[in-house]
Design goal:
The structure is a single chain. By secondary structure, this protein is an alpha/beta fold. Helices cover 43% and strands 17% of the residues. The chain contains 14 helices and twelve strands. The protein has a five-stranded mixed beta sheet with strand order 9-8-10-7-11, with helices on both faces. A three-stranded parallel beta sheet has the order 4-1-5. Strand 8, helix 6 and strand 9 form a beta-alpha-beta unit. Helix 3 runs antiparallel to helix 13. Keywords: Signal, Transport. It holds the Pfam family SBP_bac_3. Belongs to the bacterial solute-binding protein 3 family. One of its GO terms (biological process) is amino acid transport.
């Protein structure tokens, strides 16, 4: 009787979990439904930062954030062209997302507590690790930020860099003069014109700006970092299925690198691999796709089209690009970095 009772309890528990999973999967996703009805993903990106989002000589957007947008379009439509890019300034990005002008932000946006709890938005999961720094003229002889007593510093409106800079100089009791701009190109022009002694922003953006200067060797990015700036995609609150899609899509491109799946080998691995994790990721077994309402081959299509995280990084801002940014913390955890894919099972 005890065994029969335990079996009955187990059956009821399993049925409860199964019912909960089915109920969760049946919850509508206003954002996904709108994207599918429109036939196009609308993605908010930067107005122009080399390595993240910058038009090339043909006017085609290129960069890490751009590729993350394209990959998400592939996950939904299996078509890399079904995405429209909306360049947004630091001060308008969250307002535009909240107003429904874009479906998602992949726009060098740091995850912070107040952004996550007060704007009606949610950050999703980290896809890039950065930190605040300063760039100065090499001829100025400045080697540490504390040497910039009374310096005029270019900053972007609506960024965490405004507060980080103010907090740092206040903490060491050194005065400085902020000069605030809406866009990075405006700050760059002011820096070149001598209106600012330094530019304060995330180190990756400093490296990107330096690479586009007329003479990059004239500029030095100081080695110190003054904050943690983990970038994430942002979405509107209240759409759990859309949150799941963006979160697990981002995780999938990192997981693909961990598993050694590339654009070159993913087709062969889909047919030959006996690894259960690989078979789940590539849709040979369909449970991952069913849980987020996508095609069973969604992750396979993404990897086949845009590649794994390392491939995306290396062709947009890696050492062989003009930006020339080493992987550093943006390497996977088995290679000494901070990127770590949550288990996809």
């Amino acid at each position: 009787m005890v065994k029969r009772g335990l079996a009955a309890a187990c059956a009821m528990l399993c049925a409860t979990f199964a019912g909960s999973a089915l109920a969760q999967n049946s919850i509508p996703s206003p954002t996904l439904d709108a994207v599918r009805a429109r036939g196009q993903l609308v993605c908010g990106i930067n107005t122009g930062v080399a390595g993240f989002a910058l038009p090339d000589s043909r006017g085609v957007w290129q960069g890490l954030d751009v590729e993350m947008c394209r990959g998400l379009a592939v996950a939904i439509f299996n078509d890399v062209s079904k995405v429209r890019f909306v360049p947004l300034s630091s001060s308008t990005r969250f307002t535009a997302l909240g107003a429904g002008e874009v479906d998602v932000l992949f726009r060098t946006s740091t995850q912070t507590m107040l952004r996550d709890t007060t704007l009606g938005l949610r950050h999703v999961t980290t896809y890039f690790y950065d930190g605040h720094g300063f760039m100065v003229r090499a001829a100025a002889g400045v080697t540490h930020a504390r040497d910039m007593n009374g310096a005029t510093i270019c900053l972007l409106q609506g960024t965490t860099n405004e507060q980080v800079t103010a907090d740092y100089f206040r903490s060491i009791n050194v005065p400085f003069q902020p000069v605030i701009f809406e866009r990075g190109d405006q700050a760059q022009a002011a820096l070149l014109a001598g209106r600012c002694d330094a530019y304060g922003t995330d180190a990756s953006s400093l490296a990107a700006m330096r690479s586009t200067m007329p003479t990059p060797a004239d500029w030095t990015v100081l080695p110190e970092r003054f904050s943690k700036e983990p970038y994430s995609a942002y979405i509107r609150r209240g759409d759990d299925n859309w949150f799941d899609i963006v979160r697990w899509y981002t995780t999938a491109v990192i997981e693909a690198e961990e598993q050694g799946l590339t654009r070159a080998n993913v087709e062969q691995m889909r047919t030959s691999s006996t690894n259960p994790n690989t078979r789940r990721l590539l849709g040979v077994t369909p449970e991952l796709a069913q849980s987020i309402k996508l095609d069973p081959a969604w992750a396979f299509n993404v990897i086949r089209t845009v590649g794994n995280y390392g491939e995306i990084y290396n062709r947009t801002m890696g050492p062989d690009t003009p930006v020339g940014l080493p992987r550093g913390p943006n390497n996977i955890w088995t290679q000494g970095g901070l990127l770590y894919a949550l288990p996809m099972r």
